[in-house]
Amino acid sequence: MAHKVKLWGQLKHIAGEEYVEVSGAKTVKELVFHLAEQKTEISEMLLVDGQPNPSILVFVNDNQHLWENPTELQESDAITLMSPIAGG
After folding, report:
1. Is-contact 28 22, C-beta < 8 A?
2. Which class is 2-82 in CATH?
3. pTM of full prediction above 0.70
4. 4 and 19 in contact (C-beta within 8 Å)?
5. Alpha-carbon distance 6 to 54, whole Å?
6. How confident is residue 34, by pLDDT bands cut at 50, 70 and 90?
7. Per-residue pLDDT for 9 more than 80?
């Protein structure tokens, strides 16, 4: 199963593309691992100490994924990853 993932913020800027297709992920956590392998230029933002970065916001069908609750993915899910936004 392949998922079309929308990247926002710094993730989009560094990856150089807005949409990335990720295959083989059954959960949000697996999706982040696969994406980090596929797009090494953003892997340091996606992973911290070998685990998904809890600062990365993940939305599945417009609902924010909570890292403490595993989320199973469906083929039709709309997935968006957003890097933290800070300003001054």
Report:
1. no
2. alpha beta
3. yes
4. yes
5. 18
6. very high
7. yes
Instruction: Please check whether residue 23 is in contact with residue 1, taking contact to mean a CB–CB distance below 8 angstroms.
Output: yes
C-beta separation of 20 from 5 below 8 A:
yes
**Residue 28's Cα: distance from chain center in Å?**
7
Per-residue pLDDT reduced to its tens digit, 48-61: 999 999 999 999 99
Residue type, 38: Q
Written as six digits, the tokens of 33 are 């691992």
pLDDT digits (tens, 9 = 90+) for 60-86: 999 999 988 888 999 899 999 998 776
Give the separation between CA 22 and CA 31, rounded to whole angstroms: 7
Q: Tally helices (H) and strands (E) across the chain.
A: 3, 7
